[in-house]
Design a protein that fits this description.
2 copies of one chain form a homodimer.
Chain A: H1 13-36, E1 41-47, H2 53-61, E2 69-73, H3 79-82, H4 88-91, E3 100-104, H5 107-116, H6 122-141, E4 145-152, H7 155-167, H8 169-172, H9 177-184, H10 186-199, E5 207-211, H11 215-235, H12 268-291, E6 296-302, H13 308-316, E7 324-328, H14 334-337, H15 343-346, E8 355-359, H16 368-371, H17 377-397, E9 400-407, H18 410-422, H19 432-439, H20 441-455, E10 462-466, H21 470-490
Parallel strand pairs in A: 1-3, 1-4, 2-3, 4-5, 6-8, 6-9, 7-8, 9-10
Helix pairs in contact in A: 1-11, 2-11, 5-10, 6-17, 12-21, 13-21
């Protein structure tokens, strides 16, 4: 689509002036509408080196109140970003509801650069395109306006601009090595850009090619596209997003009611022996994971009082504290609620070689948020797929993903609640909310059955930990974690 | 103090077991007391390479619920940390109220390593010690319990441990280059450690040397010290912290009432010409700052409707959006309120070579928080010095710090409020709170006079922008910024 792009004619000076000032005035008005209707707007600027991305962003934000936008430069991959999944460095920048984020360079630049320099090929490239499509789609599904501009200049123009920049000491540093390389390989880059843009030109987030030969003209094109898109997005605010069909291989999972809890127990002596042996083994494997930079994400969900905390403790005790972190997940804070529901998990991902243990997870979306009405029906229905896609990103990144459901029956829960209530130093562990949730046991059971059925993918399966005997559940968890790590290390 | 340290005798096996189990039980109880009384606890582990910091942290956290602590490894300075002031990477890790942070290596390790390897000497070393003392003191003054452990092993023991680690492929990577260097220069390191510990051994945050020859014994020493300190800190919770005298050179500043506002105006033609000229100049200087990696922090405070927003806009318009960020400061979010009041500013500092413009600032502490009772009297009284110390860190880091007070008189404010109220597209800019604040004009004026008098340091002075004519104020701001940048570039 870039190759056969023909720029429109540049308007005359007077017309340009009028249109720019009209679009600026409109954008100024719209910022309040965006705030009021809580529309988040993500504006991506991609394009040729020296096409003027930075100065164009500068002109556009001039009309927006600084409280309503952020600008992030994504040209260079920082050290902490390089140690996380590809989308991490972009997901963390998504705007809050009612605000703009302007990105100077983004997922296109990184992808095409890697493709051009040969570090991203074949299946990896195809997976990357899939990731990007899903990323843009889940943002739009969650109410984001995603705008993608490609700032275009022709080969001659680019060459001239780069030469001019290199000419002066005060602007020389602005030309990166990659800019030079690109200028010398303009046609080759054109092929890769064109292919990329064709592959990612979705109706929900189309590409806008901006003729960047003239800075004012470029500003006008961006402003008018921005304004038109915001107008449409504001009309869409009450809209629900279509569910997309599952494309991942799902494992056959039992319903909770069919899980045998009786007899899943271990005697004290055997437990102590096994615990010691398995923790020692896990500790050694942790070293090896660290050395080979393999990340691990372990998630815990389960009935209240099922024994999640004690289970996590036995895993943690085996690990070097410098290489793992337990992430206790409570209700979202305001700045978290104001973003895509997965944002607070994306930003909590471990570095490669590290282990993250989530004590409660993103699955809150299809349990408590679903049943308590904290999100809309359309939101939790879409979430099954969104969470599978999220875990696919983790798995493609190389992470071992292990999801535990810590399971007990209703009678066992009652016993433990009563014990907690009657034991002074345990009372903080039991709240009125726990009792209220217990009344909804059957509703939860239905939701959990649906969750486990729809999100047990081959790359991120659920494991049931029968925890009427907590010791049994701990040993089982250790064994599963060890098995999964050994499997990954053998590859 | 390290050089003449004599370890106590290790208790016998039975006694050790009993004491460990008593201390663990007590720590388990105390975690709830900590939560209830909102005590934040920062535990720093320093010490010799291979002394067992990691495994000791692992043993200690085993008794704490994962919701109540975080572990952070600070051995390696990350890229984004290296581009910010020294304390940034530690300040960002401070715990929330009611929680623990365990640091594996910290400001001692980094400082002594730099001193040993020769990159920190003379005045820079002395300034560093000052920074560290102030950092620890301001934490304690703000209710933090700060515990500093030094894990000690002798030369022979260290040598043996490192050799053992190097012996096996699975543990070899754990020995850093610096560990090897340290082992080869044990005596030299001892000198530097001893000096550092003597210099930073404050009553409010003393050093605890831990005999780390035996892992269980080390655990016991740490646990007992931890428990004893928490017991004391819990009794201190209602305590107010002493004010410390100002040690910085203060500039003579006028009272607001003495500032001449009349005649501070500029005509339209002159304004346009000057604005264009100065913005162009600032744009060029911004390039130069970026190239030379000099950071700039510009802060705006001022009366409501004084014209802060428009002033900031004229500065921002001159800058490359990739190199600056406007930080709009609203009321703190819960996770911000739960930490030292400067935490949300420390974590928003720009990278070197970048400009941060704060639209409202940390000075809220001595204005709105003081007058509305959002903090205690002792808190805002201490804040003058705490903010000076904060800005001293910025200045020592190499930042240009420019603080603006945008000034108008009471009548001008009334005119602007009325205009906003009567102009539909401006109404969002005026709230009931603005009218309520206006009623307290005189109280605010007194607080502001005190603030400007007490925080106009030679390294971070206040500048008054007379803004009855907003255009005059914008030109004045641009000129001040340009002057300060030119001054810094000339150095």
């Amino acid at each position: 689509m870039l190759k056969n792009y023909t720029p429109a004619e540049i308007p005359g000076k007077t017309e340009m002036k009028q249109r720019i000032s009209a679009a600026r005035a409109r954008l100024y008005e719209l910022q309040m509408a965006i705030k009021d209707s809580k529309l988040p707007v993500l504006v991506l600027f991609e394009g040729w080196g020296a096409a003027g991305k930075g100065s164009c962003i500068g002109r556009v934000i001039g009309d927006i109140d600084p409280r309503f936008y952020k600008v992030a430069t994504k040209a260079v991959v920082a050290e902490d970003e390089a140690r996380r999944p590809f989308l991490y460095r972009f997901f963390k920048e998504i705007p809050e509801n009612g605000k703009f984020t302007f990105l100077d360079g983004g997922w296109m630049e990184q992808t095409c650069q890697e493709a051009l320099l040969g570090s991203l090929e074949g299946n990896a490239y195809a997976d990357r395109i899939d990731s990007i499509r899903r990323f843009e789609r889940t943002l739009v599904d969650n109410g984001y306006l995603v705008l993608k501009f490609f700032m275009h200049i022709d080969r001659k123009e680019q060459k001239a601009r780069i030469e001019k920049l290199l000419d002066s000491r005060s602007t020389k540093w602005r030309v990166s090595d990659y800019d030079r390389w690109q200028s010398a390989h303009y046609d080759q880059a054109m092929e890769v850009y064109d292919k990329y843009m064709t592959e990612t030109n979705a109706a929900i987030a189309p590409w806008y090619i901006v003729d960047a030969t003239d800075a004012k003209w470029a500003q006008l094109q961006v402003l008018e596209t921005l304004v038109a898109n915001i107008d449409v997005a504001l009309q869409n605010s009450a809209h629900t997003s279509p569910l997309v069909p599952n494309v991942f291989q799902l494992l056959d999972m039992p319903k909770l009611a069919d899980i045998e809890l009786e007899g899943k127990e271990i005697d004290e002596v055997e437990y102590k022996k096994e615990l010691k042996r398995l923790q020692k083994k896990l500790g050694k494997l942790h070293n090896e994971l660290y050395r080979r930079k393999i990340p691990v994400v372990i998630t815990y969900e389960g009935w209240d009082a099922a024994g999640k905390g004690g289970n996590i403790k036995r895993i943690a005790a085996a690990l070097d504290p410098r290489g793992y972190e337990v992430m206790p997940i409570a209700s979202p804070e305001p700045h978290e609620l104001n973003r895509h529901f997965l944002w607070r998990f994306w930003t909590r991902l471990p570095k490669d070689g590290h282990i993250a243990i989530f004590d409660r997870t993103w699955y809150g979306r299809v349990m408590v948020e679903r049943l308590e009405g904290f999100c809309k029906e359309n939101d939790w229905k879409r979430a099954f797929n969104e969470m599978n896609e999220f875990e696919k990103e983790l798995s493609d990144w190389g992470a071992i993903v292990i999801k535990f459901w810590v399971h007990i029956d209703k009678d066992t829960q009652l016993e433990r609640f009563t014990y907690r209530q009657n034991t002074p130093e345990k009372q903080w562990k039991i709240t009125d909310e726990d009792w209220r949730n217990r009344e909804k046991w059957d509703l939860y059971e239905g939701a959990i059955d649906e969750m486990i059925a729809k999100t047990s993918t081959s790359f991120a399966p659920w494991y049931i930990l029968e925890s009427v005997d907590k010791k049994y559940a701990r040993i089982k968890a250790l064994k599963i974690i060890i098995e999964r790590i050994e499997e990954a290390l053998d590859k």
